[in-house]
Amino acid sequence: MSKERLYLFDTTLRDGAQTNGVDFSVEDKVQVARLLDGLGVDYVEGGYPGANPTDTAFFAEKRTKRATFTAFGMTKRPGVSLSNDPGLKLLLDAKADAICFVAKTWDYHVKVALGTTNEANLESISQSVSAAREAGKEVLLDCEHFFDGYKANPDYALACAKAAYDAGARWVVLCDTNGGTLPEEIGAIVTEVTRVVPGDHLGIHAHDDTEQAVANSLAAVRAGVRQIQGTLNGIGERCGNANLTSLIPTLMLKPVYADAYEIGVSDESLAGLTKLAHRFDELVNRSPNRQAAYVGASAFATKAGIHASAIVKDPKTYEHVDPARVGNRRHVLVSDQAGKANLVSEMERMGIAVGRDDPRLESLLREVKHRESVGYAYEAAGASFELLARRKLGGVPDYFDVEGFHVTVERRHNAIGELVTVSEAVVKLIVGGERLLTVAEGNGPVNALDTALRKDLGVYRDVIADLELIDFKVRILNGGTGAVTRVLIESADGTGDSWFTVGVSENIVDASFEALHDSLIYKLLRSGAKAVA
């Protein structure tokens, strides 16, 4: 049986730009468009030419090779002719393959927001679609607040959708603009719309205000729509949009959809989805959601020992899809809930050969549980766990010894009278029998320590040249002046890989130094460095 084609329409560069804290430059937009084009989405909507200098510059040339490059904008203003509407002219002149018009389809908004009549709004829809068609553009109409409009006045909402279709719109997109409609409502209303506009000309644009955007999109597909709109990692205004990073693997890996439909994303692109999702987070300077479906670091993580025992024997028991299909991997976490199965599984992944009956496992398990009881968190710090495990098994070279360190923080006026705070760190090391003393200033005590520790490691200086501290998190584990502090550090190097290390102490600087020290040792270990006699 042949499969029906579903089309993916990405609105990251418009809807996503409305996310708090996200501000795309032209170069950012170019990079995101390339990511989307390579992924295999069918449409890349780039924004609203004329609305701001960034979007106008972005549409100065076509930005995709495969995907349909789409501009977004309003239908012509009521009471203004096509030739006298500057916004419409900018859309028609943009270097875009398609135009997605947005139009009011709730009669209440037509009256209150547009200040016009229902008939005039229908005329604007028809004339705008026709003008874009005559200009050689593929045309979409985004029916704003369609589901609320349908509930209030179904005849008028349907009339708006039909006006666009009759004028030649390739897609009539039903938008749940405030994200308040539920899947059963979506399915029922879409079914009614298909009596007026064929399903292969209908799209769904769901917002995530009740965390139903993915479910609503799938409900719309089951009811007949054949285009799905969404964003990378679900970003968007308020609570976000339908998450294409979740929808794509669901459509490709869940038989109820995979057996009936096909999309333009290849298996090879799907296998790069986790990397793409994280790359996008880097571009917009957001921390990846560890619990994101399919691509999150915890998406295939198992913590409890009894589950770990089962997953080692039969991964399908606890994994709804093969993690490798989306470029992710299984994580068997090591924590105070761990059993031997957790340890063995994680050590095997790290390439540490150990028998399941090795008596050293009991000692390691006791050590992990004890350390977790005083504040360590090895499920979040895999590099520190690997070092702990290898040390128990005698597998970490003695690269250098730390004789001591001290940090000073001074608040003073500088030479031009400005009040500044300066941190200075001194670290005493022994490397290959040679005593080294390094001094460095930094933006705070941790930065000063990090700089001093890595400033001169003798023969290892070239190995650690590309080491970078990229994230630093502090958590106070109990209250009071004697609070225990846990520091979690993420480090990276030129390979593009990153790792986490942890330190715990009543002193935040001491905890930070422990995590920094582990990070350095881990970098040397993974680089294959040899200890110097």
From TrEMBL:
<dbReference type="GO" id="GO:0009097">
    <property type="term" value="P:isoleucine biosynthetic process"/>
</dbReference>
<feature type="domain" description="Pyruvate carboxyltransferase">
    <location>
        <begin position="6"/>
        <end position="271"/>
    </location>
</feature>
<keyword id="KW-0100">Branched-chain amino acid biosynthesis</keyword>
<dbReference type="InterPro" id="IPR036230">
    <property type="entry name" value="LeuA_allosteric_dom_sf"/>
</dbReference>
<keyword id="KW-0412">Isoleucine biosynthesis</keyword>
<protein>
    <recommendedName>
        <fullName>Citramalate synthase</fullName>
        <ecNumber>2.3.3.21</ecNumber>
    </recommendedName>
</protein>
<dbReference type="GO" id="GO:0003852">
    <property type="term" value="F:2-isopropylmalate synthase activity"/>
</dbReference>
<dbReference type="InterPro" id="IPR000891">
    <property type="entry name" value="PYR_CT"/>
</dbReference>
<dbReference type="InterPro" id="IPR013785">
    <property type="entry name" value="Aldolase_TIM"/>
</dbReference>
<dbReference type="InterPro" id="IPR002034">
    <property type="entry name" value="AIPM/Hcit_synth_CS"/>
</dbReference>
<dbReference type="GO" id="GO:0043714">
    <property type="term" value="F:(R)-citramalate synthase activity"/>
</dbReference>
<dbReference type="Pfam" id="PF22617">
    <property type="entry name" value="HCS_D2"/>
</dbReference>
<comment type="similarity">
    <text>Belongs to the alpha-IPM synthase/homocitrate synthase family.</text>
</comment>
<dbReference type="InterPro" id="IPR054691">
    <property type="entry name" value="LeuA/HCS_post-cat"/>
</dbReference>
<dbReference type="GO" id="GO:0009098">
    <property type="term" value="P:L-leucine biosynthetic process"/>
</dbReference>
<dbReference type="Pfam" id="PF00682">
    <property type="entry name" value="HMGL-like"/>
</dbReference>
<keyword id="KW-0808">Transferase</keyword>
<keyword id="KW-0028">Amino-acid biosynthesis</keyword>
<dbReference type="Pfam" id="PF08502">
    <property type="entry name" value="LeuA_dimer"/>
</dbReference>
<comment type="pathway">
    <text>Amino-acid biosynthesis; L-isoleucine biosynthesis; 2-oxobutanoate from pyruvate: step 1/3.</text>
</comment>
<dbReference type="InterPro" id="IPR005675">
    <property type="entry name" value="Citramal_synthase"/>
</dbReference>
<dbReference type="InterPro" id="IPR013709">
    <property type="entry name" value="2-isopropylmalate_synth_dimer"/>
</dbReference>
